[in-house]
From TrEMBL:
Main location: nucleus
Protein name: Nucleoporin Nup37
Pfam families, per the entry: CCDC53, WD40
PANTHER family assigned to the protein according to its UniProt record, in alphabetical order: NUCLEOPORIN NUP37, NUCLEOPORIN NUP37 P37 -RELATED
Function statement: Component of the Nup107-160 subcomplex of the nuclear pore complex (NPC). The Nup107-160 subcomplex is required for the assembly of a functional NPC. The Nup107-160 subcomplex is also required for normal kinetochore microtubule attachment, mitotic progression and chromosome segregation.
Location within or outside the cell: Chromosome, Centromere, Kinetochore; Nucleus, Nuclear pore complex
One Gene Ontology term, aspect cellular component: kinetochore
GO biological process, one term: protein transport
Similarity field: Belongs to the CCDC53 family.
C-alpha cells in the first residue's frame, strides 16, 4: 500500500488485473475493517481495508486480500449481500456479479474450502446494475439494456418481471420497506414499483437524456439523486416529480451518482470513462455553489476572445509597420536634404576661408562653461585651424593660472551668475554666425536681425550691473584669475535681487 499524490488521490492498491468495477460493502459485516470487491477481465478480488481516519494506529491505509475468485469473463457490476459476515464461524462472503455474457453469478464462500457460484440466465442484453434486498438478502434485482427489470431469488428463479420503456440504468431497494423498488431508465424517467402488486406507484422526470445513474438516499428516503447529460439532479418526492435542484458538473457527460451513507447532503459524481475530465467530484448541498457557465457559452466566450486578440495583433502589427515605414522614409528624406545642402555649400567658392571674430572674454566663458565642448566643435566646423589655435592658447592660460588652493573668479558665486549670462550671449552669437554661413542667401541680413533679438543680456548691461554692485567687470575676461579680497569689490547682494533686475 502506498500513498499517491500525483492526481490528488489518497491511496492506491496495486492490482494484477484490469479493474472495471469497484464496490464497498454497504452492510455491517461484523468487523472493524471495510469489505471491498473489485472486478476485472477474469477475476473478482475480495479484501479488507482500514483507513487512518477510522483508526489512529493505522498509518495511511491497511489493505488485505481475502480471496481471489476466478470469474472467466469481464465483470460489469457487483452487489454485496447483507448476509456477508466476517464475525461468523465460519465467516461467510456472498456477492453477485453481472458479466459481459448477459448473465448473473452468485458467489458464496467461507474463505476456506467452500467456494460456490450459481448462474442466473434470463436477460437478453447487457446488465447495467443489480442490488440485493437490504433486509434479509434473499432476493436480487437487476436491470438491463433489454428494457427489463427482473427480480430473482437465490436459486436463480425469476420472481418478478417489469417491462421498461428504455434501457434500465440503475436499480435501488428501499432501505426500510422491502416491497418498494426504484428503477432509473435511460430516457430520463425514474419509476417506483410495488413488488407485491407489481405495479408502478410513482415516477420522476429529469427532462433530459441520457440518464446514466440514480441512487436512493439511505439517510433520507425522500431524496433521489441522479446524473443526466452533464448535470446532477436532486428530487424531493414529496414536492414534485421534477428536480428540486440541478447543476452542471461534468463537461464530458456524467456517469455515476452515489449518496453518502452517513450524510444526506453529501454525494459524489464521476465523469464518463475515457474522457479527459472523468474525475471524481464530491458535492455538499449545504454549501452555496455558483452555477457553472454552460459549455456553449464558455466556447462562445473563448472564440470571441481569440478572434478579438487576433484582430488586435493584426491591427497592431500593421500600425507598427506603417510607422516604421514612415520613419524610414523621413530618415531617407533627411539624408537626401543633408547631401543636397552639403553639395550646395561645397559649390560656394571661398567658403572655406570664412572667419569671424569672438572677444577673448566670451571665449574664456565658453571654455570654462558647461557648453564649452559644443562651442569649440562648432567653431572648428567653420574655421578648423583657428579653433584649434584658440583652444590650445586657452588651455595654456588655464594651466598657468588655476591652482587647487586658489579660489578663481569662475568659482566665486558673485561672479558665476554674470559669467553664465556672458556664456549664453556667446552661444547665441556663434549660432547666428553658423546659420549665416550655411544659408548664404539674400534674406540673411533680415534673419540675423531677427535672431539678434534672442541673444540674451547685452555685455554692457552686464558690466554696468557689476559696477553698481561693487564688482570688477574686467574679471569676466579672466575667469581663471584669483578672486580679489572681499573688501576690494564690496559686499555682494542676494542673487535673487541681482537677477531680478534684468527681468524687466
Amino acid at each position: 500500500m502506498k500513498q499517491d499524490s500525483t492526481r490528488n488521490t489518497a491511496y492506491t492498491v496495486d492490482c494484477e488485473d484490469y479493474v472495471h468495477v469497484v464496490k464497498f460493502n454497504p452492510f455491517d459485516s461484523g468487523d472493524a475493517c471495510s469489505l471491498i470487491a473489485y472486478g476485472g477481465d477474469n477475476y473478482v478480488v475480495v479484501g479488507t481495508c482500514r483507513f487512518q481516519e477510522e483508526d489512529a494506529e493505522v498509518e495511511g491505509m491497511q489493505y488485505k486480500t481475502l480471496r481471489m475468485f476466478h470469474h472467466g469473463i469481464r465483470v460489469d457490476a457487483i452487489a454485496w449481500s447483507p448476509e456477508t459476515r466476517l464475525d461468523a464461524l465460519p465467516p461467510q462472503i456472498r456477492f453477485c456479479t453481472a458479466a459481459s455474457d448477459k448473465k448473473l453469478r452468485l458467489f458464496t464462500s467461507d474463505l476456506q474450502d467452500k467456494n460456490e457460484f450459481k448462474t442466473f440466465d434470463g436477460h437478453s442484453d447487457y446488465i447495467n446494475d443489480l442490488v440485493f434486498a437490504p433486509k434479509e438478502g434473499q432476493e436480487v434485482a437487476s436491470v438491463s439494456d433489454d428494457h427489463t427489470c427482473r427480480v430473482w431469488d437465490l436459486e436463480g428463479n425469476e420472481k418478478a418481471h417489469f417491462v421498461l420503456r428504455s434501457p434500465g440504468m440503475s436499480v435501488c431497494w428501499h432501505p426500510e420497506e422491502a416491497f418498494k423498488l426504484m428503477v432509473a431508465e435511460k430516457n430520463g424517467t425514474i419509476r417506483f414499483y410495488d413488488l407485491i402488486t407489481q405495479q408502478a406507484i410513482l415516477s420522476l422526470e429529469c427532462e433530459q437524456t441520457p440518464l446514466m445513474s440514480a441512487d436512493w438516499c439511505l439517510k433520507n428516503t425522500l431524496k433521489i439523486g441522479a446524473v443526466a447529460g452533464s448535470d446532477w439532479l436532486i428530487w424531493d418526492i414529496t414536492c414534485s416529480s421534477y428536480p428540486q435542484d440541478k447543476r452542471p458538473v461534468h463537461l464530458d457527460r456524467a456517469r455515476l451518482f452515489r449518496w453518502s451513507r452517513v450524510n444526506e447532503n453529501l454525494f459524489a459524481t464521476t465523469g464518463y470513462p475515457g474522457k479527459t475530465t472523468s474525475q471524481l467530484l464530491v458535492h455538499h448541498l449545504g454549501h452555496p455553489q455558483v452555477p457553472a457557465i454552460q459549455q456553449k457559452r464558455t466556447v462562445a466566450f473563448l472564440n470571441q476572445f481569440v478572434v478579438h486578440t487576433v484582430q488586435f495583433l493584426n491591427r497592431f502589427s500593421t500600425v507598427c509597420e506603417e510607422k516604421l515605414s514612415a520613419l524610414s522614409l523621413r530618415i531617407q528624406q533627411i539624408e537626401t536634404t543633408l547631401n543636397i545642402l552639403d553639395a550646395k555649400l561645397s559649390s560656394i567658392p571661398g567658403l572655406e576661408d570664412v572667419r569671424f571674430e569672438v572677444s577673448s572674454a566670451n571665449m574664456n566663458s565658453v571654455t570654462n562653461g558647461p557648453m564649452a565642448q559644443t562651442t569649440v566643435d562648432q567653431q572648428t566646423a567653420v574655421s578648423p585651424q583657428s579653433g584649434q589655435n584658440n583652444i590650445h592658447e586657452e588651455g595654456l592660460q588655464k594651466t598657468e593660472v588655476v591652482t587647487e588652493n586658489v579660489r578663481t573668479v569662475a568659482k566665486d558665486p558673485r561672479y558665476a551668475r554674470y559669467l553664465k549670462m556672458v556664456q549664453v550671449n556667446l552661444h547665441a552669437q556663434v549660432l547666428i554666425v553658423i546659420l549665416a554661413v550655411k544659408l548664404h542667401k539674400e534674406n540673411t541680413v533680415r534673419q540675423l536681425a531677427q535672431l539678434s533679438l534672442c541673444q540674451g543680456v547685452p555685455v554692457m548691461a552686464i558690466r554696468n550691473k557689476m559696477i553698481s554692485e561693487g564688482l570688477n567687470p574686467d574679471l569676466l575676461e579672466t575667469p581663471d584669475a584669483p578672486v580679489p579680497a572681499w573688501g576690494d569689490d564690496g559686499k555682494a547682494e542676494d542673487s535673487s535681487d541681482s537677477e531680478s533686475s534684468f527681468s524687466d
